[in-house]
Amino acid sequence: MPIPQARLDALVQEARDTHSSALIVMQDGRVLIDEILDGGRDRPIETMSVTKAVLSLLVGRAVTLGHLPGADVPISDLYPEWKQGRKRGVTLRHLMTHTSGLQNMPGTMPEIYPSPDFVQLALCAELEQAPGTHFAYNNKAANLICGVLEQATGQKADDFARAELFGPLGIENWSWVRDRAGNPHGMAGLSLRPHDLARLGQLALDGGEVDAAP
Question: Is the dihedral of CA 82, 85, 88, 89 positive or negative?
Answer without folding.
Answer: negative
